[in-house]
Specification:
Chain lengths: 180, 180
DNA sequence: TTTTGTATAGTCAACGTTGAATATTATTTG
DNA sequence: CAAATAATATTCAACGTTGACTATACAAAA
């Protein structure tokens, strides 16, 4: 996934690893992709060996230098392969850490569980609102392509599904505590 | 997550790495947790060094031997810490590979994209049905605790949300192709 | 103008995951 | 009963991720 992201970004013109990192932050794709700088540089080094990318130039600023990478023809082939792959594999993702925690809920006091869930709810709610706000801004710069619209809506659906699940969990824990 | 799973399993009595692997498969938790044998053995070795688990005994079957691990008191403390952690961190998960593929959809022919999505739809549909079937079986062994019920329902919601998203994507790609 | 802070640009060791490989025992099939 | 197949039990090298660390350049404040 990191590899596809890197190749995809380079497909719109040469750039440095640092620029990629900045771009991912601007596009909010750090929210769902979570690609850290280290992974970008690693992917660049690796794909340079494999001849999928190459250094186009090295820009100097005083004593500091940055490497500008470019995608190669065989890199473009690889990119197409990765796109098809990423569409065909199962991308379904479950909140695995939460499920694991739930499996062993009985081993901690109900109060602690509720407090922990409240922390998560707060964090997700904040992310959700930031995303909604960030998108309203974009809305004003003309309307988005239908597919982008669909993807954003899907992200919102995920936030809503997850928040609703967390709330139900909390209620059930509280209900059960009252029961005893 | 692997660590919590391992400690949690050991909390119900000593067992071997191989038994853990089998148990995860039986509980369908391989569906959402996706913990491979290698990770289990690695976690056991690591946590043995950290004194969270220890070898309770070594069983021999002819020439082959298996190690039975047991959780230690400090392992139980660690487990509680990990439970709280897993409930408090943000567990929201997006279908990142799919989103990445979508971002670069324009670089492959629409037909290939649709074919790839169809593959994914087939796979997910199959998983979804297997899960539904597997659960009907359990249903008959008395009803499940409310929290388990909630978690299963959440898994179904995830399957349905994802399938619906994939269908919408397909439609939009087809619509756009017709448009030209 | 020096210091403080922040943006730029990247490296690297430690860590966990993956999947192929290994080796032994148990079971089925011809 | 021999051969093939499956189940048991684990190892390990290759790989990617993480996050802390380094180091330079630039801007702002004191």
């Amino acid at each position: 996934m990191t590899r596809l992201m890197v190749l995809g970004l380079l497909r719109n013109g040469p750039m440095s690893g640092y620029q990629m990192h900045q771009m991912l932050q601007m596009l909010q794709s750090d929210k769902w992709a979570g690609i850290l700088p280290g992974s970008i540089y690693h992917a660049l080094k690796k794909m340079e060996q494999e001849k999928f990318v190459e250094i186009a130039s090295v820009e100097q600023t005083g004593n500091r230098s940055k490497a500008i990478y470019r995608i190669t023809p065989s890199g473009e082939q690889e990119m197409k392969k990765l796109i098809t792959e990423s569409l065909s594999i199962s991308s379904i993702a479950f909140p695995a850490p939460l499920y694991t925690g739930i499996s062993f809920l009985a081993w901690i006091p109900a109060d602690e569980a509720v407090a922990a869930l409240d922390q998560q709810i707060a964090k997700i709610t904040k992310d959700y609102e930031e995303m909604k706000y960030g998108e309203e801004q974009k809305q004003q710069e003309g309307d988005l392509p239908a597919i982008v619209r669909l993807s954003f809506d899907n992200m919102y659906d995920h936030y809503e599904l997850h928040l609703s699940f967390l709330q139900k969990l909390k209620s059930e824990i509280v209900r059960k505590r009252e029961e005893d």
